[in-house]
Design a protein that fits this description.
The protein is α/β, with parallel strands linked by helices and about 425 residues long. The protein folds into three domains: about 5-145 and about 345-420, FAD/NAD(P)-binding domain (3-Layer(bba) Sandwich); about 160-215 and about 290-340, 3-Layer(bba) Sandwich (FAD/NAD(P)-binding domain), CATH 3.50.50; about 225-285, no CATH class. It contains 15 helices and 16 strands. The strands form three sheets. Strands 1, 2, 3, 4, 5, 6, 15 and 16 form an eight-stranded mixed beta sheet that branches. The two termini are about 20 Å apart. The structure holds flavin-adenine dinucleotide. Flavin-adenine dinucleotide (FAD) binds near residues 42, 53, 142, 143 and 185.
Length: about 425
């Protein structure tokens, strides 16, 4: 009997993996995802329509292949424009998956995968409802690791550790809002709370309190590919020279298309050096805010309702009338605290990954950027055997660096489908 392929996780990465496998003629695919619809995951389950895509519409179709469903024409039919609500990308992908699986041997198990073990001819994947699936190959499309909590062990409705669980109801009557973090998730939290509570005032705290710049479309620096093959220090010198002639948006957008090639040609030490000295600066300029979000934040800042504060939050103490927020310097009183500090970096924070680490079926990337994989997305086992488990998406940053956005996910899903066929 031909063994099946099991995809674990049915967010955008799991959905694109499924589409790519079907396009390449694979059938007999199981996908394990607790959410009812496939393709939404964390980012595209957004229910609030001011939570926007952070790129222009055509960029969501970058690296599309000939048979791919395309977001731009789909959106144009609905008379929507750039920086559309993220929910719409979820609608688009869910629809694309429903069409692609019609009449095909594809099963969706609406639960979680809890363990995977090797068998003589493949893998056995156990689900939390007790079902065991057998497979020739599995693909981990698990998304971000869970957030690292600000106040582990304290349960208080005024402390929101999972920023995507924020609802307008939580923000009512809670005027003094402290947000840990100043990135895109922090801005999304502000926009939601400010809409729900017009009296809310915000303090955004982080060690380096910089909000993402506003996105805009420019002509990318055309000669960026010349920097491929150079060391991080040499590239920094070349980039500084270019910045004398070009706007930084042009330089960064020129570089973006080459990041994976630059990264994969660096040695391990060069990657480590970049992570230590250049990554923060790069990521700040790379992750842009959709203009409507950016303008809303500026409006709140100008009205004196939003300020930035340098310092990490190291303790939260709930009282009846407030929460004391202890920062590196000083204490703030808050009615609502939201954690937007991002996902944990420890693979152990994910139950399934913890099981796989113990079994030696996956190993950690030496840079601490997720799972160690090969160029085709295949996980490295502890004893160096080729694995039947692949990984896709944010957990593969150590190998490709650019793995989070839809275009990269779609490209890597194609490479995995080809490797499985081979
Ligand atoms: C808020 C936000 C906004 C973004 N905006 C953009 C954008 O505008 N453009 C862009 O290109 N990219 C954007 N991104 C990047 C984004 O990461 C990708 O576009 C994409 O959503 C990642 O999908 P994913 O499937 O890897 O992860 P997720 O969406 O997190 O999906 C992972 C899925 O795995 C499931 N899962 C986890 N563990 C198990 C298990 N043990 N068993 C079964 N299922 C499991 C979860 O239920 C989840 O649904 C955004 C990301 C975020 C967080």
């Amino acid at each position: 009997m031909k063994l099946r392929i099991v995809i674990i996780g049915g967010g955008a990465a799991g959905a694109w993996m499924l589409l790519r496998l079907l396009q390449q003629g694979h059938e007999g695919i199981d996908i394990v995802e607790p959410r009812a619809s496939l393709g939404r995951g964390l980012a595209y389950s957004a229910r609030f329509d001011k939570h926007l895509l952070n790129v222009t519409t055509p960029k969501m179709d970058t690296f599309a292949e000939a048979d791919d469903p395309l977001f731009e024409p789909w959106l144009a039919e609905r008379a929507e424009h750039d920086y559309a609500p993220r929910r719409l990308y979820g609608d688009f992908l869910t629809e694309a998956v429903s069409k692609a699986v019609a009449g095909k041997d594809v099963r969706h198990f609406q639960t979680m995968a809890s363990t995977i073990r090797s068998t003589d001819d493949g893998l056995a994947i156990t689900l939390t409802d007790g079902t065991t699936l057998t497979a020739s190959h599995a693909v981990l499309a698990l998304g971000n690791l869970p957030p690292k909590f600000l106040a582990a062990g304290i349960s208080d409705p005024r402390i929101v550790e999972h920023p995507w669980s924020l609802t307008p109801g939580i923000a009512q009557e809670r005027d003094r809002v402290v947000i840990a973090g100043t990135g895109l998730t922090a801005l999304d939290a502000v926009v939601l709370i400010a809409d729900a509570n017009p009296k809310a005032r915000f303090t955004l705290a982080a060690a380096h309190p910089l909000t993402p710049p506003c996105d805009r479309t420019v002509t990318p620096w055309a000669d960026a590919e010349h920097i491929i093959g150079h060391s991080p220090a040499a590239i920094w010198g070349m980039v500084k020279r270019e910045l004398r002639q070009h706007d930084w948006y042009e330089v960064v957008d020129g570089l973006r298309g080459h990041v994976e090639t630059i990264w994969t040609r660096w040695t391990h030490e060069q990657r480590r050096s970049f992570m230590r000295h250049g990554a923060r600066l790069w990521l700040h300029h790379r992750h842009r805010s959709p203009p409507p979000t950016w303008h809303r934040i500026e409006e709140l800042r100008t009205a004196g309702r939003l300020s930035l504060r340098a310092g990490r939050i190291h303790r939260l103490t709930p009282h009846t009338d407030r929460i004391d927020v202890d920062l590196t310097a000083g204490t703030l009183a808050a009615d609502l605290v939201v954690n937007t500090t991002g996902p944990s970096l420890s693979l152990r924070s994910h139950a399934l990954l913890s099981v796989l680490l113990d079994a030696g079926l996956v190993t950690e990337c030496p840079l601490g950027l997720g799972i160690a994989i090969d160029d085709d997305g295949r996980c490295r086992t502890r004893d160096g055997h080729p694995s039947r488990i692949f990984a896709l998406g944010t957990l593969t940053r150590g190998q490709f660096f650019e793995t989070v956005a839809v275009p990269h996910i779609r490209k890597h899903a194609g490479d995995i489908a080809t490797a499985i066929a081979g």
